[in-house]
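ugh ok fine here u go
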Amino acid sequence: MAEVMEMLALSPTMEEGTLAEWNKAEGDAINEGDVLAEVETDKATMEMESFFSGTVLKLLVEPGQTVRVGDPMAIIGEEGEDISGLLSELGGGGGAKAAPKAEAKPEPAAPAMEADTGTKETPVESGDGRRIKASPLARKMAEDKGVDLGSINGSGPGGRIIKRDIESAQAAPTRQAAPVSAAPSGELRAAAGLSEVPGEQQPMSQMRKTIARRLVDVWQSTPHFYLTMDIDMAAAMVVRKDINAQLKAAEAGYKVSVNDLIVKAAAAALAKFPKVNTGFAGEALYAFDEVNVGVAVAIEDGLITPTVRNADQKSLGTIAREVRELAGRARDKKLKPEEYSAHTFSISNLGMYDIDNFLAVINPPDAAILACGAVQQVPVVVDGELQVGTRMKVTLSCDHRVIDGALGAEFLNELRRNLEQPMLLLV
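structure:
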């Protein structure tokens, strides 16, 4: 019997994914666990494995198309099996054209205009908490007609609600159509005070969509406050230079960066001030059992935060090797979900871009994020005399629901002590 392969949730925060490419073509044999497709999620490009064995009978999505979690992707069954009835139930037999073999790299195609094919269904919940599946066109028709989806028995595959179910349903006054907002291009023209603005509207990647949504949510819901401090990095830079010279002589194959020193210093400070290593959990605070430091890494579509787990228990060398390896795979979009989740504190370092100082937005579930600027030689006054100092400016963004000013200041002072006496990081 033919089975419908649906889009899987390939990361903890994934709500939809973009099909990068099919690894199987129509007519190919496939076993359970074989890689069926590569999907661009909100964090990385990941492999989607088949739940079924048999023959790929129909591919329902084009490369480049965005699909919500739970929506049909392909039909798998016995070779030669008649799936016309299933295609009809899905809404008329629409779907993707046959994909080339995995070695071919098809150009992403623009999503087609939506028909009631059922290829982009998404589950919703009724008022009593039941899980309902309905196609996008059916949902739109229900909104326009004021029809309660929870009152309809779907006639599509698996009880899905499709177009004909809405057409036969009685309108109910329990639902109102949502207001339609202006198109982004229209908003831009209005903001500019112009009827025409040269340019073109560009689609957002899954990562960019997630970043945009999360930043708005965090900025609107989290009360930020900021603490800024100058740190004398002269001793740390000397120790780093000596360590790297010895690593080079030993042909270790890696170096210790300024950022590695910061990760180690922050982890040690978090171990001493565990209240900073705490998250906000609605009506309670959540004290994390591990000190997991997320390190913001810039990639093509935005940012991702690989996590150094139990950083307070790792040596400086181990942290240096781990950060280098994680950052490399982050840029290749090959991180596993457990490698960019479970952070309890984050660090964003723009020193390599010659940024003096900046304010970072907190990265949930953390209650704080440390923004680090460049290590610079600047004029300083020591014992009444003007000297050249080596300084780095850091700013701690704090969630005021968890961290008060005094606690944040104590944490920063401990961080400074660790960096100004770097031999403490080596013992």
